[in-house]
Amino acid sequence: MKQKALTLVLILTLALGALTPAATAASTQAFVDLPSGYTALNVRSGPGTNYSVSGWVVDGDAICILSTGSQWTRIQVVRSGRVGYIKNIYIDTQSSPQPPASGTATAGCVSGGGVNLRKGPGTGYAKVATLSRGTPLKLWSSSGNWYYASTLGGTKGWISKTYVSLGYTAYTTARVNLRESPNGALIRTLPTGAKVTVQSITGSWSRVKAGSSLGYVYNQYIR
Q1: What pTM, to 2 d.p., does this model score?
Q2: pLDDT at 95
Q3: Nearest-angstrom CA–CA distance, 47 and 72
Q4: Where are the beta strands (DSSP E) in 69-152?
Q5: Which DSSP string corresponds to 196-217?
Q6: Alpha-carbon distance 65 to 26, whole Å?
């Protein structure tokens, strides 16, 4: 009787051991890739928008792919542990996790012609866009020789530091107040067409140098 019980335990142990690698192999890490303008995406309890919302993801969230269908994929969100479904078109298996693009960004511009913005910090990652010389950028963070950046239009990706210069030149499009801080005390009023050097961008305000003066102007009035 004891021998039969021991044999049964051994069979169950081997069976569980055989199942574990299969479960691990079925889980593949990927990242959420949302279009510009998307702040978040609902995770559904089933493969369709008619199912209830079980959580949410943001651009760059790490996910584990549990199973893949023709249009919807069952995932687990690493950040929250929530399990659910999102559409296949919002999943990227090539990118690295994207840093946050909020707060204050250093201003920069593209210093080369036809420079690629990529999904990750390296030439092996897929191309997001090709930028022309002089394109203004918001530089959010860096990894090695790469900046995580966004254009003023909101396109985000990684760009080699080799092709980026810090700061960029802009001109006022109307008479605009130069202030000590966003919505702060007035330093002076700049005329239309005044040349400024943009140093950083915080929300709707840019920190600029205008002649010998340093202050903030509203983004709407520079280009």
Answers
A1: 0.62
A2: 63
A3: 5
A4: 72-77, 83-87, 91-92, 104-110, 115-118, 127-131, 136-143, 146-151
A5: EEEEEEETTEEEEEETTEEEEE
A6: 8
| Tokens at 86, concatenated | 């999102």
- Buried residues in 112-145 as b, exposed as e (16+ CB within 10 A): beebbbbbbbeeebeebeebeeebbbbbbbbeee
- In angstroms, the Cα distances linking 130 to 40, 60, 98 are 25, 20, 19
Spatial CA neighbour of 195 closest among 173, 169, 221, 218: 169
Strands 146-151 and 156-160: antiparallel
Structure tokens of 203?
């929300």
108 within 8 A of 139, measured Cβ to Cβ = yes
Q: Is residue 124 within 8 Å of 143, Cβ to Cβ?
A: no
Looking at residue 7, its amino acid is: T
Measured CA to CA, the distance from residue 121 to residue 157 in angstroms comes to 8
Gyration radius (Cα) of the chain, Å: 25
Phi, psi for 14 (deg, rounded to 5): -65, -35
78-132 pLDDT, tens digit each = 888 999 999 999 998 766 667 778 899 999 999 999 999 998 888 877 788 999 9
CA distances (Å), 97 to each of 33, 74, 86, in order?
A: 10, 19, 18
